[in-house]
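help with this record:
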Amino acid sequence: MSGTEPVESRPVGIDELLERVRVGYRRIEAQEAYDAARTGEALLVDIRYAALRDRDGVIPGALVIERNELEWRLDPQGSHKTPEATGHDLRVVVICNEGYASSLAAASLHQLGLHRATDLIGGFQAWKTAGLPVTPQSSQSSQPS
């Protein structure tokens, strides 16, 4: 072997990929995410697309960054970073609709050095089911990126 061959040649299905990336960090429940955001210990980042935010509402105080912009906006070294991207020690809780895309997003943030990134088990739907604060999209003061 010359050292340039891929370690694994078989395709990996999405379920296996999710299993693999989730091993790299501890996912959190809605109440823990709420408490961490309320005390300033974590930044909630909503990566759902506009139609879902319009339909279901938003989490007050969560930063809205659609998935396709996430890495550019949260990379502390990036030229397109958001002011909230203060450093690699930032605790980010990524929230998608049901907790699948957010796992892949959190793993991607880990690759950028955001070692405290995690995601919300069950996503926005779990947050809403837990009875945590949700407001209509139109009343959210922060603008999407």
The CA atoms of residues 96 and 139 lie 20 Å apart. Residues 140-145 have pLDDT under 50 and may be disordered.
